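Side project, low priority. Logging it here so it doesn't get lost.
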Amino acid sequence: MHRVIDPHIHLFNQAQGDYHWLKSENAPFWPDKKYLCQDFSESNLAAGPEVEVAGFVHIEAGFDNEAPWRELEWLEAHCNRPFRSIAFVDLTRSDFLRHLHLLEQHISLVGIRFILDDHAEEYLSNPRVQENLAYIAERGLLFEAQLPLSDTLSVDALRAVLQVMPELQVVVNHAGFFQADNFDWKHSISKLAELAGCSIKCSGWEMLNRQWDLEAIKPAITHIIAQFGSERVMLASNFPVSDLGCSYRELWARYMFGLQIPEELRSKLTFKNAQRIYRLDI
């Protein structure tokens, strides 16, 4: 039995949460988004008879963006496996510290995500955003950075923040939206890897290609490990969005048995690095 920690999952409770982004009238306008409009709990994290999900990191799922602590309350009341929470807070808010204080009352909190995406350069150049990132760093929390690494101006803005704020621990989401044979993506991976406080998760393949297969992602994982080394890379799912590409069980089978990497490295990518970076007591 192989034990893994999945460092990027989302759980949904449709009755209690808002999930503005899942409503049909709101972006993203995916034709298959309706599949996600149901409840998902930790019991759905079944990776097959040979893989046990021993713990996970829950990434904010838009449960209630005006009161994000409600999502942590729900998770801590219903989850039994070891887990940590990445909560939502709008980094442009003038009352950011009030929200942060309320979130810090929850033992699962380990970091903050505010999706940057195509506005990353604009957000990261904003003095208020920079001030709030400094508060995150001061408290020893992680910042989950979701942005396309093919956008070199945004990557330069992130590097600039980390250079003046080296104590800020950043985890890049979804491999920076890997694009095969894209020089800018490859170069950005190399530039971010130079910063000791930056780690990266390999996940979200279905976001760009619902029909992704192992051969399509191997170049990305190989390049990321070559640049970041074996200690700052994690394999993750993006469940349940990952189901739009393949089942949870199939995803972990591809990672665990298809990549054909040495056992020591695989243990780091699928368990030890997430355990250390997200401070999971497993």
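Brief comment: The mean pLDDT is 97.
Revisit when time allows.
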